[in-house]
């Protein structure tokens, strides 16, 4: 048993919540909560239960609503009559009316001390929602940019794997008729090499070789003759879709010759 000379001459100390300091705890309405009060008691020479309790304002816990209660006092550490103890204030489910100031008191025969904690409502998921919204907007931006760059491939891939075959009952020999202007009136209106490469190489490679469409291309599939235009007009009726490659000959220009060629092309179409 400790010597009487070791008896404390001070009141107990509140370890948590800190004394003379504003402590705020954010809580979520409807969720359970436990407020822990920790205190240190010096050797008093008496073998008594430490005096520690919670209050809300001027009310003891026994006067509060039934969903609020105190736990038993737990002794966390003990040495030579000195004790570190804990008392928890337990909420079964936090209510709006519980958002207030709570004070833990500890006392002995010398004096009393206290520490307080204020319960404040937590606006849950504020940061999480902002981050989630940012990620969603970023994904939408990436998907939009991807669709802008590859919309044709996406549509064709979808139609190839999930769409119905519209060419089975249309009695068409070709799936699409691909036409473009290729005129040369005194070198005033010409189709450049890039446009011809697109019409004769790139589009057939993608649509025919990769997606299985059957294209009719006049320069490739039509034997040149004086009745080429007539035959082309007839063949357009055997194609399910018309694909037009827009070239400078189809855009407004100052040349009357080009204007005349445009009229012929539009009449042909």
UniProtKB/TrEMBL annotation:
Keyword Transmembrane helix: yes
Topological relation to the membrane, as annotated: Single-pass type I membrane protein
GO cellular component, one term: membrane
Annotated InterPro entries: Ig-like_dom, Ig-like_dom_sf, Ig-like_fold, Ig_I-set, IL-1_rcpt_fam, TIR_dom, Toll_tir_struct_dom_sf
One Pfam family linked to the record: I-set
Domain Ig-like: 12-120
Biological processes, Gene Ontology terms: signal transduction
Localization: Membrane
Signal peptide stretch: none
TM region(s), chain numbering: 129-147
Keyword field: Disulfide bond, Glycoprotein, Immunoglobulin domain, Membrane, Receptor, Transmembrane, Transmembrane helix
Domain TIR, chain residue ranges per copy: 172-269
Record carries keyword Electron transport: no
Protein family membership: Belongs to the interleukin-1 receptor family.
Protein name as annotated: X-linked interleukin-1 receptor accessory protein-like 2
Organism of this sequence: Takifugu flavidus (sansaifugu)
Lineage of the organism: Eukaryota, Metazoa, Chordata, Craniata, Vertebrata
């Amino acid at each position: 048993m400790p010597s009487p000379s070791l008896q404390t001459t001070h009141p107990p100390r509140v370890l948590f919540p800190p004394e003379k300091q504003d402590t705020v705890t954010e809580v979520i309405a409807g969720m359970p909560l436990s407020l822990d009060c920790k205190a240190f008691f010096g050797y008093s020479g008496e073998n008594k239960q430490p005096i520690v309790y919670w209050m809300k304002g001027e009310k003891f816990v026994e006067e509060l609503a039934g969903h609020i209660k105190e736990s038993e006092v737990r002794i966390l550490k003990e040495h030579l009559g000195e004790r570190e103890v804990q008392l928890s204030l337990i909420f079964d489910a936090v209510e709006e009316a519980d958002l207030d100031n709570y004070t833990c008191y500890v006392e002995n025969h010398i004096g009393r001390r206290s520490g307080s904690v204020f319960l404040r409502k937590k606006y849950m998921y504020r940061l999480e929602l902002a981050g989630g919204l940012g990620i969603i907007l970023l994904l939408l931006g990436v998907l939009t940019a991807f669709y802008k760059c590859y919309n044709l491939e996406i549509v064709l891939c979808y139609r190839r794997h999930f769409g119905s075959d519209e060419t089975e009952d249309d009695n068409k020999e070709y799936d699409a008729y691909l036409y473009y202007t290729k005129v040369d009136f005194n070198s005033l209106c010409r189709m450049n090499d890039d446009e011809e490469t697109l019409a004769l190489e790139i589009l057939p490679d993608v649509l025919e070789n990769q997606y299985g469409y059957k294209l009719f291309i006049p320069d490739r599939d039509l034997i040149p003759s004086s009745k080429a235009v007539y035959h082309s007009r007839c063949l357009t009726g055997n194609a399910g879709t018309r694909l037009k490659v827009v070239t400078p000959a189809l855009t407004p220009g100052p040349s009357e010759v080009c204007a005349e060629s445009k009229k012929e092309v539009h009449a042909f179409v």
